[in-house]
Amino acid sequence: MAIKICLDPGHGGNDPGALLGKRYEKDDVLRLALAVKPLLEAQGVGVVMTRTDDKTVPPIAERCQMANNAGCAYYLSLHRDAAGPAAHGISLWVHSRANDPTVRKAQYILDELLAVTPTQNRGVQKGTPQNYENFGVNVYTTMASALLELGFITNADDNDRFDRYFDQYAEAIARGLCKIVGVDYKAQDRPSEGPQDETITIPRKDWNTLCAALQAAVDALRKAGEGDG
Ligand SMILES: [Zn+2]
What we know:
six-stranded mixed β-sheet; 8 strands
């Protein structure tokens, strides 16, 4: 069975998330999730989406349960941050008691995103009782998870980066997720190479053995044919 990842575009429907004028977090993150999905599927990774359109989502515990029930290997919630107009950069949030592998997995995604274009590295964050102790996505999931804040919707430069590098960000997330689940990411900008997995390579020594066996079989048939003549 294919490895599955849950993509959770935050907010939706009645909940716009953070906003700047008419720009809503819920729209940015849905567009992003819908761009990441086919990139993962092209790598043979299954995707469970908590929403695929602008609808009000069930409570976070239920969304996590969708991923738990589907046996997802990783859960990524997609968000955009909000603060004063100067705050900018990218962060991922993991559970306050996340283990090292979970931190490392979030770091894979962050590294890929920071490689797209320079911006502030806000790091892989563990909440504290004073500061986002634990997001629901990191509480109710049974698999490793993280909440991504891809730039601040309240910062003009971050919005510019989000739009200008949208395709690269989507691919960066897909690359990071593939690394997390141990799938070798293959670039998609070249045509399909056909049914690769039907190609069989026979080592030379086996080939020689096979030829000898065939020759023996042919000889035996020939001999049998002579006998009947
Ligand atoms: Zn959000």
